[in-house]
Amino acid sequence: MAAHYTPLPPRAAIAALRARGGNLQPTFAWQDVYAEDHAAMFTVAKSTGHDILSDIWNALLKALENGETFETFARRIKPELVRKGWWGEAIEEDPETGEPTKVRLGSMRRLRTIFDANMNVSYAAGQWSHFEELKSSRPFLRYVAVDDGLTRPEHWRLHNLVLPVDHPFWVIYAAPNGWNCRCTMQSLSQRDIDRLIAEGEELKFEPPPISYSSWTNKRTGVVRQIPDGIDPGWDYNPGKAGHAATMEKLLARVPPEFPDP
Fold first, then answer.
1. Cα atoms in the Cβ-side hemisphere of radius 13 Å centred on 248
2. Which residues, listed in sequence order, are joined to residue 214 by a DSSP beta bridge?
3. Quick one: DSSP state of residue 147?
4. Residue 181: which of 208, 143, 209 has the closest Cα?
5. pTM, 2 dp
6. Who contacts 126 (Cβ-Cβ below 8 Å, separation ≥6)?
7. Which of 125, 151, 192, 258 is deepest in the core (most CB within 10 A)?
8. Omega into 176 within 30° of 0, i.e. cis?
9. In 3D, which of 177, 139, 140, 142 has the Cα closest to residue 159?
10. What is the predicted pLDDT for the residue at 249?
């Protein structure tokens, strides 16, 4: 009889989501919290005035711990959101302007976005913790895109780009690079690189030129230069930011080795 192995939970990814759950921050619009600020907190747009953040976070954490699908997550959380009135369309006051605004609260599409985005950034944070741990033996990162015709051209041109873990290019371009981005990062040793080349992989060792477009955050008025191919709000390294925030939270809980007398 074949042996059956139960996959181990992704501990580093779980730790990252747990750390963010220690700081639940309701927001009205996704632009209210930008890029790397998400690494140290958990929020959902249109959650202001609704007691639903802890419910969603707990459901996401359980899904991550148990390796559950979106369908299982949605079945668990939807009844509670409906019970609390956070479902469908509503008219709510924008706390920024005081104006009544038609908003979309919960929906299956929104739950899918919430699930995918939080799973992606949690796994990215977990991955980055391993990249840091293995940096001496696996000092390179490879950008891996999905070759199925659905990947954004700007992301596909990064496929097989190999650079050192600490290369400044990864400050912004480390996956995921946007909503529904399926790109991943892979750590490599020099032996791995040699093997991939021998297998016929066309690796690239110089980052491509970067072009930018101006984007204005309509909530804050701040104008940012966003690299083409990256969605606004994703112009940072989710994995590295999440790993740093997680380590900061963990270290804050550790008592000093030699307390003051």
1. 11
2. 225
3. -
4. 143
5. 0.87
6. 10, 11, 12, 13, 14, 15, 16, 239, 243
7. 125
8. yes
9. 142
10. 76
